[in-house]
Amino acid sequence: MIRTIDPISRNLDTSCEVCVIGSGAGGAVVAKELAEAGLNVLVLEEGGYYPTSSFSHDPQRMLPRLYRHAGGAIIVGNAPIMYAEGRCVGGSTVINAGICYRTPEAILDHWRDEHGLVELAFEKLVPYFEQVENNLHVMPVPDAIMGEDSLKFKQAAENLRYRYVRVQRNIHACQGTNLCVLGCPTGAKQSTLISYLPAAANYGAQVLANCRANRIVVKNGRAVGVEVSVVDPASQQIRRRALIKAGAVFVCGGALHTPALLFRSGLAKWRSWIGRNLYLHPNLKCVGIFDDQVNSWQGSIQGFQIDEFAEEGIVFGSTFLPPGILALSLPYFGNDSFKLMEYYHHMSVWGALVEDTHAGRVWSLPNKTSLTTYWVDARDQQRFLRAIMLLAKIFFAAGARKVLLPIKNFSEIDREAEVAQIPKLRIRASDLSVFTVHLMGTCRMGADPRTSVIDMDHRFHGLENLFIADASVFPTPVRVNPMLTIMALATRAAQKFVENRKRYLRVT
Amino acid sequence: MRRKILSTLQEKFLAQLTPHIIPADGPLVPHFEAKIVQRLDRFLFELPSLLRTLFLWGMRIFDLTAIFFAKPHRRFSRLPEASRFLYIRRMSHTWLRPVRDWLFTCRGLILLFYYSQPEVMAALHFDPRNWAREKVQARRQALNLTETVETIKTYSE
Ligand SMILES: Cc1cc2nc3c(=O)[nH]c(=O)nc-3n(C[C@H](O)[C@H](O)[C@H](O)COP(=O)(O)OP(=O)(O)OC[C@H]3O[C@@H](n4cnc5c(N)ncnc54)[C@H](O)[C@@H]3O)c2cc1C
User: Fold this and answer.
1) What is the CA(A485)–ligand 1 centre distance, in A?
2) Which of A4, A327, A345 sits opposite B154 (nearest CB)?
3) ipTM of the assembly?
4) Chains A & B: contacts with CB separation below 8 Å
5) Backbone angles phi, psi at A358, to 5 degrees
C-alpha cells in the first residue's frame, strides 16, 4: 500500500522489522524480496507518488514531479556536469530508458581480484540476473518498435564494420512511445513503480511517499530507527517529524544521497570511504541532421549499441530528447536556435558513454547538506574527445549532413574530413558539455573494512544491522547501464538477509 | 501554497530578457513572458538553496555588468531594446565565466519552456499529446486492458 502526505501526517508512529530508505532500483527490489519472505517492511520515499495515468509528454510538468531539482542538478568541478536522477516513488527507474545489461564478466573478475569480492563471480550472480530479468520482462527490442534513428544507427555500424548488439530492455508490450524519460505513459516500461513495488505491496510492504529519512539512529552498534520528516510536495514545508523504529535498516537512496544520509547520521567517523569513489559514466551527446526525416520520437528510445570500443571503455547508443531538452543543450538562441530546431524531425541524438577512471566525491557540509565534486582528468578528457570523434564518424557513416558536437567553439561540422581534427583540439574540460545519469560507487563494497564501506553481504562494516543496496555499492564503474547490476545485487543482499534474519533482527 | 522566489523586479528583468532569447521568427506563444516567469519561479523553487542563490546573484551581476560592457553604459534593465540584444550576444562569448554561465543557464531554461509549448512543438512537426494518447490506446487494446497498469492501492482507497 502507498501512503502519501495527508494520511501519513495524521498518523505516523510506526515501527517495522525492516525499514528501506528509497524506492528505486535497489530499494524496491529489497522491499519485495523481504516482504515476500514474510518480513514487515516499510519503504520511505522522499519523492511523491505519481501513477502512470498522471504521466504527460510535457517536460515542464514532469520534470519537477519526477526529477530531483526538476532535472537541474549540477556536479561541481573543472567541467560542471549536469546530472539527472529520479525523486519519486520508483526512483530513477521511472525516468530511465530501461536498458538492461548484465555486469560484464571482466568487471566482476576485477572486483574479485582487486576488492576481494569472491562471492560476486559471474556464475554465482547468474540466478539473480535471471530472477530480475524475469520479473522485469527483459527482452531484446523487437523489430516492430525499431525507430528510423535506430535503423540508421545500425546501418552506420554495419557500414563501418563495428560490432553492435541489439539492446535489451525491461518492456512489456512496448509501443515505441519514446517518452521513457518523462515517465512511460503506456505502462510498458517495467519500472519498479509498476513491477517490484506493487509486488512488495501485495506481500504487505508499505510505501510512505513524501517521507524523507533525515538520520539513522545508532545505539550500541545497532541501527535502531530512522528519523524522518514528512514533506509537503507543493510547499516543500515539513509537515511532521517522527522516529520510525526498525529492527534493521536498508539504505537505498542512490549514489549521492546514501552517503549524505550516512554523513548526517554521524557514521563518517566509522568508515572514511563514505562519499569517496564516485563514478559517473560521463555521457557525451552529438546531434546528427539528416536530409530525410528521422522522426526520432517514433520507436524505442534505443535499439542498438555499438560495443566495438567497450574494451577501451566507450559504448555508443541512440537516444531521444524532447525538443525543449534538445534546445537547452544546443549553444544557440534567438533565430539561430529556431533555424536549427526547424529540422527537429530530421535530427537524431546519439551518445557515447565513457567508463571513467578518475573518481569524484560527495562531501559533507556543516549545515547537514552535501556537495558533490568531480574533476575530469587529462586522460579521461582525451577519451571524451576520442568518443566524440568516433560518434561523429558514426553519424557520417549513417548519412548525416551535419553533426553538432558538445564542444564549445567547435560545435558543428559538415564534412567527414573535419572529424580527424577533434582529438587534436586543445580545449579545457569546461569546453565540453558533459552529462550523466549513471552515478555509482560512493559506499563501495569490499572485503577490507579499511578501504570499503560495506561487506559482501551489503552490511555496513562494524554495524550489525545496517545495509546498503543501491548504485553506491559498486567498487568501480560497470561499463554498461547499471540498473540490472543494482537490482541483481539488491536481490542477493535481501536473500542473504533473509537467510540470517534471526541474527540481524536480534533485539538487544 | 508554495512561496514565490522571484521579486517583482526580478520578474520584470526576466520578462525583458526573454524576447531576445526566444526566436523572433518562431511561432508566437501568447503571453509567453508571463508564462516563463511563472515556470522559472517554479524551477528555482525546486533547486537546492545554494544553486538558487547563485542563480539570483548571477542575474544581478548580469544586470550590472551591462554598465561596463553595453552601450549606452546602463544596467541591462534600463537599456534600449536594440542594445539589450547586442549585450546578450557579447556576453554569450565573454571571458567573464560566471556571467557567461549564468546567461547560458537562463537561456537554456527559457528555450526549454519555449520549445515545450504545444504551438511550437506543432511547428516542429511533433505532436506528442496525440501520439502518446494513440499509443496508450494501442497498448490497452493489445493487452485487452480496461484501465491503467498499477495495482498498488493508495491509502485513501
Ligand atoms: C534519465 C535516466 C536514464 C537512465 N537510463 C538507464 C538505462 O537505460 N539503463 C540503466 O541500467 N540505467 C539507467 N539509468 C540509471 C539507473 O536508473 C540508476 O542507476 C538506478 O535507478 C539507480 O538505482 P538506485 O537504487 O541507486 O537509486 P534510484 O533509483 O535513484 O532511487 C533512489 C531513491 O531514493 C530516494 N531517496 C534518496 N534519499 C532519500 C532519503 N533521505 N529519504 C527517502 N528517500 C530518499 C530518492 O528520492 C529515489 O527515489 C538512467 C537514469 C536516468 C536518470
Assistant:
1) 13
2) A4
3) 0.90
4) 170
5) -115, 130
In terms of CA atoms, which chain B residue is nearest residue A79? Answer: B101
CA distance, residue A122 to nearest chain B CA (Å): 33
Ligand 1 atom closest to the Cα of residue A471 is 26
Note the pLDDT tens digit of each residue in A18-65.
Answer: 999 999 999 999 999 999 999 999 999 999 999 999 998 888 889 999
pLDDT per residue as tens digits for the range A281-306: 999 999 999 999 999 999 999 999 99
Read off the pLDDT of residues A55-105 as tens digits, 9 standing for 90 and up. Answer: 988 888 899 999 999 888 889 999 889 999 999 999 999 999 999 999 999
- A321 CB burial (10 A radius; 0-12, 13-18, 19+): buried
Query: Cα B74–B77–B80 angle (5° rounding)?
Result: 70
Domain limits, chain B: 8-125, 127-157
Contact at CB, B156 and A7, closer than 8 angstroms: yes
User: Which of the residues A137, A257, A281, A438 is marked catalytic?
Assistant: A438
Distance of CA A369 to the CA centre of its chain: 21
A57 part of the active site = no
d(CA A12, CA A21): 16
CATH of domain A140-171+281-355+377-433: 3.30.410
CB contact under 8 A, B131 and A176: no
Q: What is the CATH T-level fold of the domain A2-48+88-136+206-272+443-503, as seen in this structure?
A: FAD/NAD(P)-binding domain (3.50.50)
Cβ of B128 within 8 Å of Cβ of A175? The answer is no
Q: Please choose, from the candidates A39, A11, A38, the residue with its C-alpha nearest in 3D space to the C-alpha of residue A465.
A: A39
Beta pairing class for A304-306 and A164-166: antiparallel
Average pLDDT over residues A326-354: 93
- The CA distance from A452 to A454, in Å, is 6
Q: How far is the CA of A259 from the centre of ligand 1 (A)?
A: 14
Three-state secondary structure of chain B: CCCCCCCHHHHHHHHHHHHHHCCCCCCCCCCHHHHHHHHHHHHHHHCCHHHHHHHHHHHHHHHHHHHHHCCCCCCHHHCCHHHHHHHHHHHCCCCCHHHHHHHHHHHHHHHHHHCCCHHHHHHCCCCHHHHHHHHHHHHHHHHCCCCCCCCCCECCC
Which residues in chain A have their CB less than 8 angstroms from residue B148's CB? 51-53, 187
Q: What angle do CA A164, A376, A481 make, to 5 degrees?
A: 30
- For ligand 1, the distance from its centroid to the CA atom of residue A258, given in whole angstroms, is 11
Tell me what percent of the residues of chain A surpass a pLDDT of 70: 98
Which 32-61 residues of chain A touch chain B by CB within 8 A? 49, 51-53, 56-60
Closest CA–CA distance from residue A35 to any residue of chain B (Å): 14
Residue ranges per domain, chain A? Answer: 2-48+88-136+206-272+443-503, 140-171+281-355+377-433
Cell of A231: 514533506
Which 3 state secondary structure label does DSSP give A389? helix
Count CA within 13 A, CB hemisphere, residue B8: 0
Q: Is the pLDDT of residue B157 over 50?
A: no
pTM recorded for the entire structure: 0.94
